[in-house]
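<purpose> Linking amino acid order to shape
<body> The protein record starts here
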Amino acid sequence: MAVPDAPDLPRRFAIASALARLVFGLAGYGLILFVSPQAHQLRALYAQPAALGPMVARGLAAILLAGLAAWCVTRRWLARRGAGRLARPGRTLAGYVGLLWAGLLAAEILQAYSGVWLAGLARRLAAPGGGMRIPPALFAALLSAMAAAALELLCAWAALRVALWRSRTAGGAAPAYTADHAAAIAAASLLVWQWLIVLGLVPFLGIGLLERQSSLAAYALGYWALPAALAALALAVNRRHVPRALGGADAPRAVAHGSLSFWLAQAAGIGLVALALMNVDSAGIQAFSRSPAAPWIRLLAYAALQSLSCALCARLLYGRRGGAAPAAAA
């Protein structure tokens, strides 16, 4: 078996991780839709675009997160050892995939039990004197989405660390980490949050992103293509504002950049909505909501907030460092 060059090894592990997560997801949905006692009803449910759109978006987020974690861990592990090759990369990769599947299975079981606990916690907090001011279903969905992201990341990270534990390097130049890598990782992190949080909470927020009778093409555009387009915009902004000379910055800072950009955009959007509610009467708000241009105005406003957040967070996390050429992380 040919040993890959240094730049290809993190990418090989990332692709394998994404494919392994895809196979795991397809197997899980296959059991649910064809083997479970409610298979007939569930097939009828997921045949509807209103259920299929969010399901595919969650799956895409999980696949992207698995690949992102594998690339970051592999590159960082090799860079710390000053090497770009593994003595037996195929064996390490096979071990990683097996461990990843085992971890994902354990995570699915844990989420099944934790979902019941989260629903009960939300009901208790929503009771009189509980102190919670948001709907229980929204609270439970938000915590569930964040827990799912944390478990996906933990599974990929732990499985790869264990698989690499007894691996030996085989020379080669350590893989570089450039400003383009940092920009792409930040945009991918933002896209994961977009798919998991925003689209996952749309049914609870009553935003009316799409009508339930909309076609599959409309859901593909709203749930799959539009978030990807916003991530491409974030990538362009990041490439402009992330400095070419990164100093000692590594992938965790890029993940923080994307995550902070996402949450800052959400906070700014909530603030603008609250400001509008305080200064515009209900008749004006209803007239705007009925306007055919309203969805486009909201989309453009969100894209502007996201771009501004990406630029501000790049300045916050990377400062004013700059340079003519990208530099590898130490």
Remarks:
- The chain has a mean pLDDT of 82.
- The chain has ten helices and no strands.
- Residues 89-126 form the longest helix (38 residues).
- Residues 105 and 303 are 36 Å apart (CA to CA).
